[in-house]
Amino acid sequence: MNLPESYIPILLQAGVAIAFVAVSLLGAHFLGPKQKKGNSVKNQSWECGVPVEGNARTPFSIKYFLTAVLFVLFDIEIVFFYPYAVNFREFGMEGFLAVLTFVAIFFMAFFYVWKRGALDWDK
């Protein structure tokens, strides 16, 4: 098989990655802790020393997930301001108008979420 020289580093990196995964999985299997089968007290779930109450799969309010997703969404949007803050002189008026458009869309999304009641925890 005659491969171009440019493929050799890619194949080498892929081989190292696959070998690392294999060694990690095998090492975890053979060197990791072993659990004994059975229903002993040692194998029961505990959270900070407090006995478990109910089932772990009990559904809870979607507000938790909605708040987390909104936080990540708005947090990522704020990260996009960093390149503008670093290079605002080079962007000039065109960059300023682009950031104003971005901020306008950002605030429209924020007010939409606010009006829909997604930020009201008590509902």
Automatic annotation (TrEMBL):
Tell me the membrane topology, using the record's own terms: Multi-pass membrane protein
Question: Where mainly found?
Answer: membrane
Q: Which family does it belong to?
A: Belongs to the complex I subunit 3 family.
Entry function: NDH-1 shuttles electrons from NADH, via FMN and iron-sulfur (Fe-S) centers, to quinones in the respiratory chain. The immediate electron acceptor for the enzyme in this species is believed to be a menaquinone. Couples the redox reaction to proton translocation (for every two electrons transferred, four hydrogen ions are translocated across the cytoplasmic membrane), and thus conserves the redox energy in a proton gradient.
Q: Name one GO molecular function term.
A: NADH dehydrogenase (ubiquinone) activity
* Subunit note: NDH-1 is composed of 14 different subunits. Subunits NuoA, H, J, K, L, M, N constitute the membrane sector of the complex.
Carries keyword Nucleotidyltransferase?
A: no
EC number, UniProt record: 7.1.1.-
Matching HAMAP family, A to Z?
A: NDH1_NuoA
Q: Where in the cell is it found?
A: Cell membrane; Membrane
Spans traversing the lipid bilayer: 6-32, 64-84, 96-114
Looking at the UniProt record for this protein, which Gene Ontology cellular component terms does it annotate, in alphabetical order? NADH dehydrogenase complex; plasma membrane
Q: Tell me what reaction this enzyme catalyses.
A: a quinone + NADH + 5 H(+)(in) = a quinol + NAD(+) + 4 H(+)(out)
What's the name of the protein? NADH-quinone oxidoreductase subunit A
Q: Write out the entry's keywords from A to Z.
A: Cell membrane, Membrane, NAD, Quinone, Translocase, Transmembrane, Transmembrane helix, Transport
> What InterPro entries does this protein map onto?
NAD(P)H_OxRDtase_bac/plastid, NADH_UbQ/plastoQ_OxRdtase_su3, NDAH_ubi_oxred_su3_sf
| NAD among keywords | yes
In Pfam terms, one family for this protein is Oxidored_q4
Q: Which gene name belongs to this protein?
A: nuoA
